[in-house]
Amino acid sequence: MKHLFVALLLLSGWIVAGWIIWQGGIPKVPEPPAIASPSVSPVILPKASPFSAVFDAWVARPEFKSALVGLVLLDADGEVVFSSPLGETALCPASTLKTLTTGAALGEFGPEFRFETRLVHRPDGNLALVGSGDPALSLADLERLTADAVKAGLKDVTGDLVADVSVFTAPPVNDHWNWGDIGNAYGAGAFGLNVEHNRMSARFQPGAKTGDPAKFIEGFPVSADTRWENDVTTGPAGSGDGVAIYSSPGGRVISMHGTVPQGPAFSVGGAIPDPPAVAVEALRSALEQAGVKFSGKAVPRKGEATVLATHRSAPLPEIIDHLHKVSDNLEAQCLFLTLGNRAGKNSSTAVREYWEKAGVAFEGLRLIDGSGLARANMIRPLDLARVNLAARSGPHGDLYFQSLNPSLAGNVRAKLGSMSGVKTDVGFLRLKNGKELTFALMANGLDPALSFWPLRAELLEVLRRVGESGK
User: Which of 254, 119, 280, 253 is nearest to 194 (CA)?
Assistant: First the structure.
């Protein structure tokens, strides 16, 4: 029976095969419809750059093993001469971000711009010190305002002396600044009325031996009702300033922790919590000593507001020169807020739009403040370089260029940036043949103990030599 089944199965197979042949062969299976490939722009690879081997060897050092390092070089026309793999990745810029502020301020306001602080006798009887955001107003300037006001005939004030800080609507301290920064001198807030760079000095008498309490002697200038909390102790001789200072904007409590070195009296710097109050107290004292009387009754006076005296700051290029030289956060932030105030916009928007009109197409930009103090700031090395090239190419490009710090025998002009784990550098590299490259070097995630700047100088020197030889 089994053999009969197999025979029938073979016979049926031959019958089917014969039928297929008689019909003209095996029918074709229809092909599936073609799927259109997505349109992909061709990747254009840059030509090999003589700078590539230099950077690759430099960044391969073990010091950079866990760091993010980006480098971009631009020629005078803005073309990319070299970009490392992270050249188009947004990184934390630290103080090189100041160049977005200073370049925009110089271009928007011009070199003749000055801050003006006015002493105004108002119809309500009050005498108002009207701030303009001048970051460099000093106690000596207030003395001169006093002399000018008395010379103008000021003798009696029916009301009081008040501070007008309305020029800035933004808080004096950015929400993204570290709590450990804002009480210290470099983290002072930017007010509509500032005085002495909003920096005070605290003086201590160290103890006889390490670990002893350090006696707080005095702090100046601060408002008269300031309360001091002192937990500072004595450190080893030669240990330097180990004091951390904490305060809040407008507050009256200053807390101090850490150490001062064993030895003679030692002073440390901190932020003035309430600069407008300090300015008003100092000015009132000067006016009273000059014979001006205050009744404090705020009796309205006839007529319109009268400007009795005006203080004008140094011209903008001098402010920017100082700002770039010492990397002054307060000066940068005051210019940043002034740009927003003049534009009637958020300062970040005003600065971004200024550079976009200059041809910089940002990607990944996060502009939190004007000084770079916030770690949340982010910008690509490519965009940082383009901003500086645009500033260099603008109507005040020579002033901008000269404001940057020179190095490498004058062959580099640059603005440096530094915070813990972050080192950045942007500026201009001059070759022996006279050509100039714009560069931006940004390193994040560094060992805080790394001595980065000698390595930076070594890189720029080799890049300069390679650029000169064309090899």
Answer: 280
Q: Please check whether residue 346 lies inside any domain of the structure.
A: yes
Query: What letter would DSSP give residue 369?
Result: -
Domain count, the chain: 3
Structure-block tokens of residue 376: 């949340």
Cβ neighbors of 91 (< 8 A, separation 6 or more) are 68, 70, 378, 379, 380, 381, 424, 442, 444
Tell whether 177 is covered by a domain.
Answer: no
CA distances from 96 to 26, 205, 378, 388, 440 (A): 75, 37, 11, 10, 9
Q: In what order do the strands lie in the sheet with 412-419?
A: 80-83, 68-74, 436-444, 422-430, 412-419, 405-407
The reported pLDDT for the residue numbered 440 is 98
Number of separate helices (H) and strands (E) present in the chain? 12, 18
- The encoded tokens of residue 113 equal 């711009």
- In the 8-state DSSP scheme, what is residue 132? -
CA distance 152 to 83: 61
Ranges of the chain whose pLDDT falls below 70: 1-48, 298, 301-302, 468-471
Task: Find out whether 95 and 417 touch, Cβ atoms under 8 Å.
Answer: yes
Task: Give the SS3 label for residue 318.
Answer: helix
Report the alpha-carbon distance of residue 4 to residue 306 in Å, rounded.
126
The gap from C-alpha 428 to its chain's centroid, in whole angstroms, comes to: 19
Residue pair 131/341 in contact by the 8 Å Cβ criterion: no
pTM of the model: 0.88
Q: Which of 291, 312, 333 is the last residue of a domain?
A: 312
